[in-house]
Design goal:
This protein is mostly beta strands. 5% of the residues lie in helices and 58% in strands. It has five helices and 48 strands. The chain has a 22-stranded antiparallel beta barrel. A five-stranded mixed β-sheet has the order 10-16-17-14-15. The chain has a four-stranded antiparallel β-sheet with strand order 3-2-5-6, with no helix packed on it. A hairpin with a 5-residue loop joins strand 5 and strand 6. The longest helix is centred in the N-terminal third of the chain and has 21 residues. It starts with a helix and ends with a strand. 40% of the residues are buried. About 3% of the residues have low confidence.
């Protein structure tokens, strides 16, 4: 506790000293606009006055505004590649000093690689000390995705799996998945029902502006669940300027599921979405959106009522109100989800079938704001309340009489509710020209209610204080140390969780990043106290384990970036990286040692991942191409029990991946996009019917082809084919793991619904 108190006092000292020492006011205002060489707005470019603390970052429209004392200065504009322009200016007192025609060297396309996740301020991908992947708005439109999984499934290092019965997905990066990957919406963690990330399928893809994936431990900045990395889904926000502004959009897309399709409803995939926003002159803006996403299910090789992939209908709504001023901005946003997954039962000889509806309602309230007290101190606030309810309703249908009645079978009816209160505040203080300090406080309250939650244990509280710094002692070196101290109401969290990230600028074309991070994850409410009946595989119980230990990890990463050609005509970038992660007390679901027909959570020994990745990107005129290769090894000892002790467990098992993306813009014709990924076979040790086995999916390939083009001033059209290789079931090879128990088997996992075709129309209006 004394260590935590020291950190809290240190944080408060930074905040109070920063605000007291630098809360000065200035009567002169400096404003202007920065554009690229091709005349587009230059977003997130640094503008400042040389040898002073006066300055800011341009917004999405290339505009900037800050305060300064009147006098003669040298204005410095730093572009995305750290090229800078300097020119003398005179700032007059008691007036607005305008500089409307500043041009930087880069083209607009180069400025799209901006990252905000884990950063003190928005900055270029090249200047971040973290290794970050960005999927921007153009790429999202080009993929014509109907959900987040289809948007990410061809990214290198990303693996997505599905639970068909529950309609849930899981996400893996750097060889780790489940609760070791933290999913954020606009920097705020979202609640999940179990260890899998079903929230991935419950995000409206039409509201996404960009996605940032930070690989490696982010526990210092984002706390528990961030051992393997962070996925930050950044949604579209309103914007305000000095004029009234109206924007309206709509999207409709029809897609087959293999050879199954019915127009607008029923078989196939059907999407309709609308959105609108209005901005006032005083900086206030209002916006909202609504989406219907109907997935008709996939019959596959089954006959009768039952489907290989159950149908799902989602209604998603969002509303926001915000205000933007010179020194502050504030936004409130409400997201709503209504989801119905229908698992139909076959009709047996007695003519009585059982249908199961999984009904979900999710409300997410967000409040976010920033306050620039002066040129050297900035406060940020994020707060949210999430309410997530999941119902299981089983209905018996008598096809002889048409009568319907609730099922009374074991586990056939269930209702569970989860709620999360979250608050986070940070302050960034520019202590010196080459030193930024960040301090933050965070609190999260998790609670659960329902028949399947142990009523004696329904809440978990987490509180944390964290500090970090960005120090550049030399032009070629950036150092970012950080430390986090946490309190957990169930577990004794470590007094300090450290991290250290460094970036070396070897020359104008090469960067080297080296990092270390300590990770910590306390078991969540569901893993500890939740019980429910899973209908897959003939049905079995899943129960929490209150005796779980917390997970921990040590992670190391190195990344070398080379830009042999990087100008407005051609850009070639190569990134070679390697990582090693050592996880202890990994939490995994296995068969219960004490109860038959039951799976529960155990700490299953050591888990390590080791990998190399080579990523190449080239942009030349109207062509953008990417080729990436990864080779990731996984090592796990399932348990210390002598029953499972085997020499085979002492080996890494490696799996390759290859990802290719091609985008070509043919002027006045269309934009052509090809996305391809080869996913190599992978295995790890698991418990299977009481034996130790190696299990995992075989090789498979996935490819999508899309064509987009404008057909009028306001309408764009998208057509294409998804899952070109007609993937449905992929073999899941289960082989003997050396335990001395001769177990072998072969099953399959459903990854796709076969080759599908789609047609979509998008409407955009701005005035």
């Amino acid at each position: 506790m004394k260590y935590q108190l020291r950190y809290i006092l240190f944080v408060l000292a930074i905040l109070l000293f920063g605000s007291a020492s630098f809360a000065q006011t200035s009567k002169a205002i400096v404003s202007g606009t920065v554009k690229t060489v091709d005349g587009k707005p230059a977003e997130f470019v640094t503008v400042g006055l040389k040898n002073t603390y006066y300055g800011t970052i341009t917004d999405a429209d290339g505009n900037f505004k800050f305060e300064a004392v009147a006098g003669n200065y040298i204005m410095v504009v730093y572009s995305i590649m750290a090229h800078k322009q300097e020119f003398p200016i005179t700032i007059k007192p008691d007036t607005i000093n305008r500089f409307p025609n500043i041009t930087i060297m880069e083209a607009a396309l180069e400025l799209k690689e901006i990252v905000v996740t884990g950063q003190f301020f928005p900055q270029s991908l090249n200047n971040s000390v973290y290794k970050v992947k960005v999927i921007n708005a153009e790429q999202i439109e080009q993929k014509a995705s109907n959900n987040l999984e289809s948007l990410l499934n061809t990214e290198i290092g990303v693996r997505i799996s599905n639970d068909l019965a529950l309609g849930e997905s899981d996400f893996e990066i750097m060889g780790m998945s489940g609760n070791n990957v933290k999913v954020l919406i606009d920097g705020i963690p979202i609640v999940d029902r179990l260890s899998k990330k079903q929230s991935l399928s419950q995000i409206d893809v039409n509201t996404i502006q960009r996605i940032e994936i930070v690989e490696g431990p982010m526990s210092v900045t984002y706390g528990t669940d961030a051992l393997a990395g962070v996925i930050n889904v950044i949604t579209k926000k309103g914007k305000s300027d000095d004029t009234c502004h109206l924007s309206v959009g709509a999207r409709m897309q029809e897609e087959t599921l293999g050879d199954e399709y019915e127009p607008f409803s029923g078989k196939g995939n059907h999407i309709e979405s609308v959105n609108a926003q209005y901005s006032f002159k005083n900086g206030v803006y209002l916006g909202g959106s609504f989406t219907r996403n109907e997935f008709g299910g996939w019959q596959g090789d089954l006959t009768g009522r039952k489907k290989e992939w159950p149908s799902k209908t989602q209604y998603m709504g969002s509303g926001q109100v915000g205000i933007t001023k010179r020194k502050y901005d504030l936004i409130y946003k409400l997201d709503y989800l209504n989801e119905d997954i229908l698992v139909k039962g076959d009709v047996p000889e007695n003519r009585k079938a059982t249908d199961i509806n999984f009904l979900a309602n999710r409300y997410t309230h967000q409040l976010q704001g920033n306050w620039n007290t002066n040129n050297r101190l900035r406060f940020s606030l994020s707060a949210s309340y999430q309410d997530y309810e999941r119902d299981k309703e089983s209905t018996v249908i008598n096809f002889s009489t048409g009568e319907k009645s609730p099922s009374t079978g074991e586990g056939s009816q269930d209702q569970t509710n989860y709620s999360v209160w979250f608050a986070r505040t940070t302050a960034v203080w520019k202590a010196l020209k080459n030193l930024n300090l960040q301090a933050g406080l965070e609190y999260q309250h998790n609670s659960g209610a329902g028949d399947k939650i142990d009523q004696a244990h329904t809440t978990i509280d987490n509180a944390a204080v964290f500090v970090s710094a960005e120090y550049s002692p030399f032009k070629w070196l950036d150092i970012r140390p950080g430390v986090r101290s946490s309190y957990n109401s169930v577990y004794d969290a470590p007094a300090a969780i450290p991290s250290l990230n460094t970036k070396f600028k070897l020359n104008d074309k090469m960067d080297l990043r080296l990092s270390y991070g300590r990770g910590f994850r306390a078991p969540n409410l569901q893993e500890l106290y939740y019980t429910f009946y899973h209908i897959n595989g003939g049905g079995f119980w899943i129960k929490g384990n209150p005796d779980l230990k917390a997970e921990s990890s040590d992670s190391y990463m190195a990344s070398w970036a080379w830009r042999p050609m990087h100008n407005s005509n051609i850009r070639l970038t190569t990134n070679f990286s390697g990582f090693f992660n050592d996880f202890k007390d990994r939490i995994q679901m296995v068969s219960s040692l004490n109860e038959p027909n039951t799976q529960t959570y155990y700490n299953t020994g050591k888990y390590q991942t080791l990998g190399l990745m080579l990523e190449n990107t080239v942009v030349w005129k109207k062509l953008r191409a990417g080729l990436s290769i990864s080779y990731i090894g996984r090592y796990n000892t399932f348990t210390d029990d002598e029953k499972y002790a085997a020499e085979a467990q002492d080996k890494f098992r490696y799996s390759p991946e290859i990802s290719l993306s091609l985008t070509y813009e043919w002027p006045k014709v269309a934009t052509f996009n090809l996305f391809y990924k080869f996913t190599g076979a992978r295995q790890e040790y698991r418990e299977y019917n009481g034996d130790l086995v190696l299990a995992g999916l075989e090789n498979y390939q996935w490819a999508d082809l899309t064509i987009t083009r404008p057909i009028t001033k306001y309408f764009d059209i998208a057509v294409g084919v998804k899952n070109i290789f007609d993937i449905t079931w992929v073999e899941n090879n289960i082989s003997n793991g050396g335990s001395g128990h001769g177990t072998s088997g072969l099953s399959s996992s459903l990854l796709g619904c076969g080759r599908s075709f789609f047609l979509g129309i998008t409407f955009k209006f701005d005035k």
